[in-house]
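In this supplementary section we document a worked example of the pipeline. Step one takes a protein sequence of length 336 as its only input; no multiple sequence alignment statistics are reported here. Step two produces a three-dimensional model, which step three serialises into structure tokens for compact storage. The input and output of this example are shown verbatim.
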Amino acid sequence: MLSRRAFTLSITAGLAAPSLVRAQGGNDLRQAAQGVDNLRQTAQGLDQLHAILVQRGDDLLLAEAPRGPGLDSVANIKSCSKSLVALILGTAIARGEIAGLSTTLAEAAPSLIPADATDGVADLTFEDLVTLRAGLAGTSGSNYGAWVASANWVAYALRQPRIAPNGGRMIYSTGTTHVLGAALAQVTGDSLASLMRQRLGADLGIEIPNWTRDPQGRFMGGNQMALTPRGMLKVAVMMRDGGRFEGTQVMPQDWIADSHVARTTSPYSGLGYGLGWFVSRSGWAIARGYGGQIIAAHPQRALAVAITSDPNRPARSQGYFGDLMDLIDGPVTALA
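The serialised model returned by step three reads:
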């Protein structure tokens, strides 16, 4: 069981806790407390930030919610949902429900493909879908409204004009991940919400409430899921620890390892993108959602991070999201 010893942020309290000294491996106690205090002050200075949790090893270094509903209330994690859908794909391949990443949409879920689908859609592989390299015009950003107003979100996404080859460059699109979620539901015979609860939530001990559905009743694949900040941290710890959480192998170890490897590059942030997770040059695997929702894991530094932010304000790569990356690569990484 993870002890989750909370690091005290004051020197006096820290001196009363021998476990802190041991966890630091002999490092100066004052320097450790100052590092956590620096992180806290920097985080509090970001006016979009709602909550932040940082865990190193078994030790919870920081868990604060300077704004927003708190650490135990659900927050809309926005497109962090894409990374969770990718995890479910890993379980489906491990269980033999999908033969592998090279399996095509036509082989696994042909009934999802509309008769007037764009040429090449039938040959899209699950790797193309999970890495956002379907080659079709995106349904995110300015195209999002028309997509969610359509009568069939899957069909609409698969009718988009081709702007790149299958498996080409990364094209950020919630429609692509929604197709992936719909295919997972079809091949498993279960809803995406049930898959999330059974294969992720149950072993992590987190509740996953219902979220937005499309006109056919399918749960949206890639947006609008909700978790508490503490639940987000559990996902980060599991990602950091090779798919394990409190002694249980929640996700396939090889899938988690592959999720930390970049297969393409985001045209917006310059971050790598692997199996549904952004990958930084500094070694972080990151789930990123609109407004500044983040689930991040760094196995080499034994760090796990969860951040929620105002879901109604943008977080661009050269703006607030850039500030969050500076926070993660700076004060957070310094705690390793």
